[in-house]
């Protein structure tokens, strides 16, 4: 892929090649690191027979032996098939659940949290629809989030989120449980 990209592929082909290259590059990097660790381990074991290098080899062997299982696990993870939607942008929808006005305040907190997270990640966060409650919470919230690996990162946020806290709406200081649902669609 590197050779085809540097050889000057057709413009239509460059995008597809670049996408495939960016998907395979982390796997190739993991394989190279794993092979290097195996080579380093073999070298250290060979140095055990050299009296001058034996102390250095004995010092390095435990570190090298400990690193190999970690690299094998990282390689296994890198080889897992990717979800085809992982690279796509996401639609994020938040709705308050049980808990009345406090739930809408919690939904607003979630919306602001996701918006700040998107800013930190360098993603584009566009609010498509938002209905505010009387106290500044959210009755309904929909946003379009664009950037690199957005759906891959946000898809695990889908579901019901729950909070237990003393709400701003509580005069007696009692703890209330509120919930909000989050939907993440590619």
Overview of the structural elements:
The protein has 186 residues and is α+β, with helices and mostly antiparallel strands. The chain is 51% helix and 23% strand. It has helices at 2-6, 11-47, 54-79, 100-121, 150-154, and strands spanning 90-96, 124-132, 138-146, 159-165, 176-185. The chain has a five-stranded antiparallel sheet. Helix 2 packs antiparallel against helix 3 (54-79). The mean pLDDT is 88.
Q: Which secondary structure elements does this structure contain, and how are they paired or packed?
A:
Elements (H helix, E strand, L loop, with lengths): L1 H5 L4 H37 L6 H26 L10 E7 L3 H22 L2 E9 L5 E9 L3 H5 L4 E7 L10 E10 L1
Antiparallel strand pairs: 1-3, 1-5, 2-3, 4-5
Summarize the structure.
The protein is 51% helix and 23% strand.
Supply the key terms.
186 residues, five-stranded antiparallel sheet
Task: Report the major sheet.
Answer: 5 strands, antiparallel
Low-confidence stretches: none
Number of strands: 5
Strand proportion, as a percent range, falls in 15-25%
- Order of strands, main sheet, comes to 2-3-1-5-4
In DSSP terms (H or I, runs of 4 or more residues), the helix count works out at 5
Rg over C-alpha atoms, rounded to the nearest angstrom: 25 Å
Secondary structure category? alpha+beta
* H/E element sequence: HHHEHEEHEE
Q: What would you call the shape?
A: elongated
Give the rounded overall mean pLDDT: 88
Share of helical residues: 40-55%
CA(first)-CA(last) distance = 28 Å
């Amino acid at each position: 892929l590197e050779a085809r990209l540097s050889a000057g592929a057709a413009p239509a082909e460059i995008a597809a090649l670049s996408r495939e290259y960016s998907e395979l590059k982390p796997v190739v990097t993991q394989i190279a690191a794993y092979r290097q660790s195996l080579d380093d381990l073999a070298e250290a074991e060979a140095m055990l027979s050299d009296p001058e290098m034996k102390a250095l080899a004995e010092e390095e062997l435990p570190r090298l032996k400990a690193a190999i299982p970690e690299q094998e696990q990282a390689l296994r993870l890198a080889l897992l098939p990717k979800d085809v939607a992982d690279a796509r942008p996401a639609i994020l929808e938040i709705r308050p659940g049980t808990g009345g006005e406090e739930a809408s305040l919690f939904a607003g907190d979630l919306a602001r949290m996701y918006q700040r997270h998107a800013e930190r990640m360098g993603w584009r966060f566009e609010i498509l629809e938002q209905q505010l409650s009387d106290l500044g919470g959210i009755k309904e919230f929909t946003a379009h989030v664009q950037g690199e690996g957005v759906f891959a990162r946000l898809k695990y946020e889908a579901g019901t989120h729950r909070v237990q806290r003393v709400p701003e709406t509580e005069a007696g200081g009692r703890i209330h449980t509120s919930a909000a649902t989050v939907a993440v669609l590619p």
